[in-house]
Amino acid sequence: MKNLKIFWLLSAMLLFSCTEKGPKEIAIGKDQCDNCKMTITEAKYATQLITEKGKTYKFDDIRCMDDYASSNPEQSSGSTTYVVDFPTGDFIKTQNASLIKGGSIKSPMGGNTQAYSDKSAANEAAEQSGAEIIQ
Questions:
Q1: pLDDT of 10-64, one tens digit each?
Q2: Phi and psi (nearest 5°) for 91?
Q3: Count of domains observed in the chain
Q4: The model's pTM
Q5: d(CA 119, CA 130)
Q6: 72-96 burial by CB neighbour count: b if 16+ within 10 A, else e?
Q7: In a domain? residue 14
Q8: Where in the sequence is the domain holding 121, given as residue range(s)?
Q9: Which pairs with CB-CB distance under 8 Å and at least 24 residues apart come from 66-74?
Q10: Whose CB among 43, 64, 76, 94 lies 3.0–4.6 Å from 81's, allowing a Cys bridge?
Q11: pLDDT tens digits along 62-99
Q12: Closest by alpha carbon to 49, among 22, 85, 15?
């Protein structure tokens, strides 16, 4: 009986240690924004917030993520946020991104912000779109 308990404990530990800690794939046209509840339709503007406990919240725009974080400090405290690198479509940590806002950029919920992993690409995009670099 004791061996069975140890087996189940080790199995559970193995299962939880194998779960992904990074951003999850977003099902465009199916997943809903956890802030405004609208369907996420544009992958390049999607964002995610992952809590310390590993719960993932998905958003259709950086503005929705910021609004959610402000309204839910218990969820956002100690969380990691991700934005999509505009040129590649890959998620990157928000803290590592260069963000540009405004100009001709139009995003789903009016955040009008694009993220770039490469600062020179962000500078070029900001110049072309009339946007300003905000991070």
A1: 555 555 544 557 999 999 999 999 999 999 999 999 999 999 999 999 999 999 9
A2: -75, 140
A3: 1
A4: 0.83
A5: 16
A6: beebbeebebbbbbbeeeebbebee
A7: no
A8: 24-133
A9: 66/111, 67/35, 68/34, 68/35, 71/35
A10: 94
A11: 999 999 999 999 888 999 999 999 999 999 999 999 99
A12: 22
